[in-house]
Amino acid sequence: MTETIAVLFIFFVLIMFGIIFYYKYQQVAFVEKQEELLGARAIETTAKVLFMPEILCSKGEAEPEDNCLDLLKLRSLNETFKKYLEDYYFDIFSYGKIYVQEVYPGNSTWILYDKFKQDATKEEPTFFVVTLRDEIPGEREPSYSYGYLTVVVYS
Description:
rod-shaped, five-stranded mixed β-sheet, 46% helix, alpha+beta
């Protein structure tokens, strides 16, 4: 009888260790999945911004230039974002911050979208190198500069 009780006790202790191990594993897996989903959302938001017709370098019916943002559109876009933030753009970008930093030849920054989440626990920034085209009145050819697009999403 004592041997049977000892075997059952050891069996239940082993079962308890298995349950504790599985619980800890599930906690870690859940956190990793949340980080993976946040990273995927950051990349998805970056792709949405890069292909927005509001800021793409285009000329009439022509095909837009790849990885190029039009500074003329970019300068006036902030007013549009503010005007339609709650109606349209929040559904697209959710909580996040989007800005463009010019690196060469100047050093300008344009904040396109900024909606901060008060109880954010994590943030995931993504960076993308872009060409910035500026149409200067009176000049025949546009001038080009280089910069990067930064998209930060909050969870």
